[in-house]
Specification:
Blueprint lengths: L17 H12 L2 H4 L12 H5 L15 H12 L3 H13 L1 H29 L3 H9 L4 H31 L3 H17 L2 H27 L27 H27 L7 H30 L7 H9 L1 H33 L10 H13 L6 H30 L17 H18 L5 H24 L3 H8 L13 E3 L6 E3 L3 E4 L5 E4 H6 L6 H12 L7
Antiparallel strand pairs: 1-2, 3-4
Helix pairs in contact: 4-10, 4-12, 4-14, 5-6, 5-11, 5-12, 6-11, 6-12, 8-9, 8-14, 8-15, 9-15, 10-14, 11-12, 11-16, 11-18, 13-14, 16-17, 16-18, 17-18
Length: about 575
Amino acid sequence: MTEIIPASRNPLSFSRGNSVMKLLSKLQALEEDDVLDTRHFSHREGGHGAETEDYSLRRVPASWRWSAWQALWSFSGLNTAMVFPLMAGLLATFYGGTATLIAFLMTLAYTWLGVFYFARKAANEGAMEILMSKQSFGFVGASYQLIVYGLLASVYFALEGHVMASSLSELTGWSTAVSAAIVCIAFIPLSVYGMKFLALFQGATIWLYLVGILLVLYCIMSNVNPEVAATNLDAAWWTVNPSGAPLTWVNILSAFGVISGVLGAIMLLLCTEQARFSRRAERNKAALLFSGLGMTVCMIITPLLGLYLLAASGGKIPDPGVSITKLLGGFGLALIFLTQLRINVINVYFGTNALENFSAVALKANWRRVTYILPFLVICYLLIVSPWLQYFSAIMTMLSVFLVNWANVMLGEFWLVRRRMRMPAWSEFRRAYLPAYNRIGLTSMWIPTAIGVLMASGHFGTETVALAVPVTGLLAFFLPLLMSLCMSDESVLRQYFARAPVSTKQLEIMHICPIERTAHHRTDFVLCPYHNDQFISSTACAAEKECGARCQGLEQDKTAASPGQAWA
């Protein structure tokens, strides 16, 4: 429980109105188990419904958590994605191996810090980035990000799926349209089950991946194929530089601009989808595993593999899919397919989670994640067979700006604004207690993003393109604090809380929602004046179309009638 400092000895009380202090007192008076499910279970408890429930709209209960290692296994599909060695090979071709390696090291430092914080917060609260975003951008305002986020997942799937479809067409002679359809259909059974299946699938296939990579390295050292062999390697193979690009700050930051978003900032957001299933008692362990082990593999080990394969080909083959197939033949093709399966199961998972959240807010539809698998894969299929993927470079640059700014706005308001205002560290996600829009978060997100897109467009020179991500990323981090300093304390608080959450300690641990007729942990419930001052679940609250957020209107009427008694 956070200590409540009396006004008589609180130096902030002289600058804040009575309404502000009353709201802060209510927030600080909330104990941890008023908001979070603090129970401890040594084993998971739940039936078939729990296996397919991914808690996209509410926190993961303590009864459906597992160890930090098991959560890491479900995340490991990202570690083995071919996009990391592929990106390293492509960037080294344009900017040189040294500049590429420095850019990955810069991204590693960023993701080490960010993933540690986000993974720990997710494990502590049982919430993924989509739920956290609802307070950072407002309950409705966060849905704008979810549209792009869902599209981002489909783009990632299409990129990986295109490789699989092309390989299948190469073997069979089928058209790309037929091969793409088969690939997409194959992911339906792989995506129906949730985190439990994902962890089992990733844990079983990681060993096949490791064996395959060891065989690749053995074949290179044995000079099995002269096109990709140790005889082509220089002593400092990591400095491979086919184009002879100079080592300049422009090239380093240009490479960093591509990597830091689509391979870096995305990790800060995606790690929460798996880390939130870790037991709260293991939140520090989960944070260390996800950041220390997970990010080191992603940002150093697999990119070094990409540089090594490029150097072993004499700087001629930047695509690991081609070089691995040359070395291992049919087994190499199977290895590529395995990596695509591992990463695309995760792409479907986080894409359908985003769609579930968006439709719950925009359409008031309370449908489960599995409902969105088929429409998501239809979108992916259309992307695979369309010429849109030809604009890969421009798309990745724009998405990097978006992703870095999203992560940095949240970090800026977590670390700077909330601490300055003495607000709780946990993120509220329930509609009854949130304003529709958070002007601080939305302004800090979209103004830097618009600037970054213009800078990355290429109309203002290569130096401006190189600075797009780092400059607008820093702006997105500090802008929440700058905005809060220009607003009254009460106005800042109103961006984060429409009213103070009401304690649910009087409810049973597992309380039945009178609207849904299903039981949820009591911390999921909100007090609803529209439903006769009953406690209803957060999803029932979010799906209610007729109330007009009456609970928040009553709070505002009270403030207007008696300003001195605001938030009472």
